[in-house]
Amino acid sequence: MKITSAKVIVTCPGRNFVTLKVATDEGLHGLGDATLNGRELAVASYLQDHVIPCLIGRDPCQSEDIWQFLYRGCYWRRGPVTMTAISAVDTALWDLKAKIANMPLYQLLGGRSRDGVMVYGHANGEDIAQTVDEVGRYLDMGYKAVRAQSGIPGLASTYGVGKDRLFYEPADAGLPAENVWSTEKYLDHIPLLFDKLRERYGYEPHLLHDAHHRLTPVEAARLGKSLEDYRLFWLEDPVAAENQEGFRLIRQHTVTPLAVGEVFNTIWDCKDLIQEQLIDYIRATVLHAGGITHLRRIADLAALYHVRTGCHGATDLSPVCMGAALHFDTWAPNFGIQEYMRHSRETDEVFPHAYRFRDGFLYPGEAPGHGVDIDEKLAAKFPYQRACLPVNRLEDGTMWNW
Ligand code: EZ4
Ligand code: CO
Prior knowledge:
Number of strands: 16
Structural class: alpha/beta
Number of helices: 13
CATH class of the largest domain: Alpha Beta
CATH architecture of the largest domain: Alpha-Beta Barrel
Strand content: 15-25%
Bound molecules: (2S,3R,4R)-2,3,4,5-tetrahydroxy-N-oxo-pentanamide, cobalt (II) ion
CATH topology of the largest domain: TIM Barrel
Order of helices and strands: EEEHHHHEHEEHEHEHEHEHEHEHEEHEE
Radius of gyration: 20 Å
Helix content: 25-40%
């Protein structure tokens, strides 16, 4: 079997998605997600101009060799644009391979390790009372795990709190919107939120929180410590993770479990955090960390150190990524949880998929491959629209992490 063509499909059914479609001489095709939020066209160009020409004529079943060719062969290796492109190729090839085998993808990885994939939803509100109600809405929908983010008194906006409660979308401006941030105001407020949540819902539901890279290590240590009584499932991205030593300091002060890695691209970004047991959950994804081939390597390393997976699954990761992630999650012996932000109806129509939500769990379905397709005619009706993620400034104007 040979790869005869590959194309990049850019569509914007409410938000931008980039999809790679690889076709073969035997009429089968495979799909990979190539969406890098706010930098979509950079990946589209990388695929079109540099990767696709190298794929034509190759045997699609040699996904390992193609991965190594694209990783080692680019010289300027790693980085989000390159790794997202590699991920898209790898996901499309695993999709194809499973279609050739006429099996759902999880079977090729080693079969089922569990019946369903526990997911967490995103509850948010402008203040504590609203966030507490929103968490209740997710629990009513059957969720066993909910991430809670709340507006902060004195700040006009903050990460994770949108205009629309169920479908918030942070990339909403042609140029980056400028938000104002205060760590002091945030640190005082968040423990009050979790106090109210446990008072209302008890200790059975899993509760999560995302600090979105905004704290220094000692601030993160203080937050983790002040949340200990509320027994979070995890505290996510407490600090910007390029300073990995920071996690040693956080760990010395708190037993609140830590999750990190949605912006990581390779095993090299998380190797020390895993080996030193500085984190509890690794959030690298199929989409940004080298596809199934590489994420499997990360999960296997993590398993040696009691670190479980918690794949990123915000709305900027397309249903193609979600489908592949659910097969991965169904297999991974050290699976922890999967993030699940629901896509809009338009997005679900552009990407018909086999996965289904039931009672707090997602199920990948039994369709051959990863079970997600693209309706190209419908996709063409939603042309690309430039959209950027916001940036943050401190109250005195200093640039900060968003
Ligand atoms: O801000 O995916 O845990 N989820 C997140 C996401 C990220 C977006 C960035 O594109 O942190 O909401
Ligand atoms: Co996050």
